[in-house]
Amino acid sequence: MVSKMKKNSKLIIQSLRKDGRKTLTQISKETGISISSIFENVRSLEKDNIIKKYVPLLNYQKLGYGIKVEIFIKLQNKEDKNNMIKKLKFKNCVNTMHEIAGDTYDFMLDLIFKNLSELSTFIEYLEDNFAIKKKQQMIVLEQLKEEGFIPE
Q1: Which fold has domain 61-139?
Q2: Which one of 19, 47, 60, 129 is most buried, counting C-beta atoms within 10 A?
Q3: Of all residues in the chain, what percent are helix, strand and coil, respectively (each to 5)?
Q4: How far apart are CA 94 and CA 111, in angstroms?
Q5: What does the pLDDT read at residue 68?
Q6: Cα dihedral value 16, 9, 95, 82, nearest 10
Q7: Is the dihedral of CA 84, 89, 92, 97 positive or negative?
Q8: How far from chain centre, in Å, is Cα 82?
Q9: Taking the alpha carbons of 41, 47, 48, 50 in that order, is the dihedral positive or negative?
């Protein structure tokens, strides 16, 4: 019974990852799972925080934000870590922020800006507010795949 639930949950997740706006009826037709079973599975997946939220994928360029940047940061001291996390969580330009393992860097930031001037201002903010030992920034030329992972 547990393996069947896992299989059904995986099928439901796979369907929703392709299009999070699908109705229960559409998912049922695609997977062959009953609507009531899908409803219960989705509720359980949400309760267990496997499905965290439903959000649209945005075309930032069409919204006027043509600059996407990845910045890797190594702090001079670990004491700055919590301060940086706390402050950057509330910066709108920070799309995602990851704490990463390894000797080279501590953080990876995915940032969105309207123009290079905004990027420059943000880099000045970083340098003025945090003891940065090393940083590397890369401007994304083209996003080739986005949110594509689907569990098998």
Answers
A1: Alpha-Beta Plaits (3.30.70)
A2: 60
A3: 40, 20, 40
A4: 5
A5: 97
A6: 170
A7: positive
A8: 20
A9: positive
| Sequence-distant (≥ 6) Cβ neighbours of residue 22 within 8 angstroms | 15, 16, 30
Closest CA to 76 of 144, 135, 15: 135
CATH 1.10.287 is right for the domain spanning 2-47: no
Residue 34 has φ and ψ, to the nearest 5°, of: -65, 150
φ, ψ for residue 101, nearest 5 deg: -95, 155
Cα-Cα-Cα-Cα torsion 64, 127, 125, 136, nearest 10 degrees, comes to: 20
Q: How far apart are CA 100 and CA 107, in angstroms?
A: 5
Give me the pLDDT at residue 6, please.
81
Residues of the chain with CATH 3.30.70.920: 61-139
Q: What is the DSSP letter of 90?
A: T
Residues of the chain with CATH 1.10.10: 2-47
- pLDDT tens per residue across span 102-142: 889 999 999 999 999 999 999 999 999 999 999 999 999 99
